[in-house]
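Feature request disguised as a bug: please show the residue count (392) next to Tetratricopeptide repeat protein in the output. Example input:
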Amino acid sequence: MRAILHTILLTTLLFTGFKSFSQQFDSEQLLDMIQNQRYKEAAAYIKSVYPAEISDDKILSRLAYCNYMAGNLPDAERNFGILLAKDTTNRTALNYLAGINEKRGNYLQTRRYYEKMLLLDSINFLTYKKLADVCDNLRDTTGWLRNLKKANGLNPREPDIAYDYARLLIKRKRYGLVDSVLSIAMATDSLNILLINTRMNLAHKQEDYKLSVKMARKAIDLGDNAGQTFNLLGIGCYYLRQYKDCVAAFSILELTSNSNETTYYYTALAYRQLGNILKSNEYLARSVREGISNNIPVYYQEMSVNDEQQKKYRAGINHLDKAETFDSRNVFNYARARIYDQKLEDRKNALKYYKKYVDLYNEERDNNKACYHYSLARIKDLSPAGTSASAK
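Example output, currently without the count:
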């Protein structure tokens, strides 16, 4: 709706402004381009009628707008820059120049333009909000907080500002202020899921599980299906001793593949309270498996490499053994065979692991022909006379 009203207002202004243009200028044609969002054509049309430098500010502002909407940011910046040079209080030009620089990721320049706008209008809460977002991108936490506080003070009922301000306050652990910010905003917009979720998170951090569960259920009733909402619902239900509801909440996460170590853990505890020890043990086992990083075998393998560089070859073998307890990757067999062969001169174990590597070798999975053929050669060299391994 806002976009439609903006287009109607713009076309009205254009129609009014272009009545005084030269007779060769077809204002109806330009209006049709604007209304159908053919901004590039509109900009080209204006320049075709006014090929020289445009001195009329109204025409230049229309050209600047068309260039901006067409994505021609360099020309738009140049047009708005001329307008600002003529009138340093031109808030429209300042706003567009800020937007252009923000699109480019030039946040320092964006901040300067918004700060200039605030010198002209110190009570514009939207400009403070935009400036806060820029400070966030610049990792200026102090400026982020200061501008959100100012924006919220000017318009405490605006939900987007309240949401951002409350989240930042939660990060700063200023929980008392958060409650006040959310209460005012939710009095105006009680069905705003973002605000509801923020209050839910706040209640959870304060261990007010009754309110946390209430907010989670309200959000879900409004259509929220985020994993975090069901997660906090499940945890809250557990502490409220609503064990069946706890299991039900985490079951939904399981169905949507959003379970993790914590959800399995609380599910296990809930089943224990419900007297189902078998299920409790099942979910505790899942929690253990989920808590183990898939990268643990890689870490042990890297430790083995370090051991080898320090000539601690037995320790390297031990680390490879530990890696294999988490994931039986065939490459561990080759690594052990090589250490036994080249470093420890243990022909028996070297032969054992070279054979194991060759027997388990899978071209698609292992994809290392050089190691495979080297292993075959070493098996032949290390094997007693008359025995060898056959190539796949």
